[in-house]
Structure to design on (129 residues):
């Protein structure tokens, strides 16, 4: 189930309401909470989407701050693949056959990007475009 479908589900609305009833104050600033946050993001830990212990009540301000601080900082694994499951590079329709990631087609890569790739590829022992 995708993230959007989780948050639109009756199951999520019920779980959210229960969490806010059991933990009515923001964990960070202790003001009244009005949002429920996944401590470990659903996009990186989908198996924890419904885990009660992975939820925390937050006020809008603290939730927005947490979300902004966590945006685009996931990095890559040891093989160089993005950890963010939603990253375009992980989209199988944009990858070459086999297990190796590919770059976007030349016509949608900026000329500067191609120049950087062509200069870096031999140094890194990678194939060119």
């Amino acid at each position: 189930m995708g993230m959007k479908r989780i948050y639109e589900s009756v199951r999520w609305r019920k779980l959210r309401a229960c969490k806010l009833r059991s933990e009515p104050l923001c964990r960070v600033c202790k003001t009244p909470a009005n949002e429920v946050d996944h401590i470990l993001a659903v996009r990186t830990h989908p198996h924890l989407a419904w885990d009660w212990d992975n939820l925390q009540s937050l006020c809008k301000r603290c939730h927005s701050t947490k979300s902004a601080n966590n945006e685009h900082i996931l990095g890559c694994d040891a093989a160089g693949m993005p950890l963010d499951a939603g990253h375009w590079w992980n989209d199988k329709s944009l990858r070459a056959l086999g297990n190796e990631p590919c770059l976007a087609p030349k016509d949608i890569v900026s000329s500067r990007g191609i120049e950087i790739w062509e200069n870096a590829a031999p140094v890194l022992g990678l194939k060119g475009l």
Notes: Confidence is low (pLDDT under 50) at residues 97-113. Residues 111-124 form the longest helix (14 residues). Strands lie at 35-38, 55-58.
